[in-house]
Design goal:
The chain has three helices and five strands. Helix 1 packs parallel to helix 3 and helix 2 crosses helix 3. The protein starts with a strand and ends in a 71-residue tail after the last helix.
Length: 202
């Protein structure tokens, strides 16, 4: 599941959260929304009259379908490049979207714009490189207390190395009923560490 917030494009070219889109965090500190998409001042078709071809609308109800459309395009790209394979899993899609999103607001994920705005072209390019073994989506089953290590050699030129982890967490048990309960809702709490050749942990 993805939580999608709304952003608006200003006349000066800047992008910022809308006033009607809810901000995180959740009570237990998780980042929400996950992603954002345009949701204010959009033109769309309407049914109020025969000549109401374009009306100006706003709402997260318009942001979420944009992200859904990006996901459909990415699944189609993956299917065309990998005939006969199962579609990308929900966790793989999330990792791909988060990793390639346009960062907005504060550096890194934040409680207003999440991981940012999906960049369909960048995500599709990752899928194309994946077939060339230049970038890889690793999907593995890991056990509690058993680290899983992937070694990757970065060229050191161009875009910086970006690494993302995502998983589909099973439904947790509801904690005691309390206002702003900080008890974690996660069943599996997985950590990601990137260790450079000098041993530095990022």
């Amino acid at each position: 599941m993805l939580s999608v917030g709304a952003v608006r494009f200003n006349d000066d070219g800047t992008i910022e959260p809308t006033t009607f889109s809810s901000f995180g965090p959740t009570d237990d500190g998780r980042i929400k929304p996950d992603l954002v998409a345009p949701g204010e001042g959009l033109e769309t078709l309407w049914n109020t009259s025969d000549d109401a071809y374009f009306v100006n609308v706003s709402g997260t109800s318009y942001s979420a379908p944009i992200v859904s459309g990006v996901i459909a395009l990415l699944q189609d790209e993956y299917r065309q490049r990998n005939p006969g394979r199962l579609p990308l899993r929900a966790s793989e899609i999330r990792a791909l979207l988060f990793n390639t999103a346009e960062d907005l607001g504060s550096f890194g994920p934040d409680y207003q714009t999440g991981w940012g705005m999906p960049n369909a072209a960048r995500a599709a390019e990752c899928l194309r490189h994946d077939n060339l073994n230049e970038l890889t989506i690793h999907t593995r089953t890991v056990r509690a207390g058993s680290p899983y290590t992937v070694r990757y050699r970065a060229a050191g030129t161009g875009d910086p190395l970006r690494v993302t982890i995502a998983w589909t967490d099973p439904a947790g048990t509801e904690g005691p009923l309390a206002l702003d309960n900080p008890t974690s809702s996660l069943v599996h709490d997985v950590d990601l560490r990137v260790i450079g050749p000098d041993g530095a942990v990022n």
